[in-house]
Write a structure and sequence with these properties.
Blueprint (H helix, E strand, L loop, with lengths): L1 H10 L16 H15 E3 L7 E6 L2 H13 L3 E7 L2 E7 L11 E3 L1
Antiparallel strand pairs: 1-2, 2-4, 3-4, 3-5
Length: about 110
């Protein structure tokens, strides 16, 4: 029962999902593994040649902020947009032009 309560606290209703706070203090290899798993689930990557952008989609503002935080920690530039009830975390490895027009920027 305790595990169910803990999991529902972070992964319950889709609009309230977030990452546990201890994730912020995890080692870089753990953060990278988590980031890759999140991207496999609700993310996408631009597969065109010479493109380095990624996007993560979530209805939860807290999850969007958490993903932006760990992406920034991994060296990506991020911004968060909200449209049609979905938060979109835009990420890029380089290029300040990607951040123009963003609502929330992390650098």
């Amino acid at each position: 029962k305790t595990l169910v309560c803990w999991l529902s606290q972070y992964f319950g209703k889709k609009c309230e999902r977030r990452l546990p706070s201890f994730i912020r203090h995890a080692e870089d290899t753990q953060i990278n593994t988590l980031f890759e798993a999140l991207m496999l689930g609700d993310g996408s990557r631009d597969s065109r040649p010479n493109r380095k952008s990624k996007v993560f989609y979530t209805p939860s503002s807290r999850m969007a902020e958490d993903v932006a935080f760990i992406a920034t920690r991994l060296g990506l530039k991020t911004n968060i947009e909200f449209r049609d009830k979905v938060h979109r975390v835009n990420m890029v490895e380089s290029g300040p032009e990607f951040l123009l027009g963003g609502q929330l920027e992390h650098q």
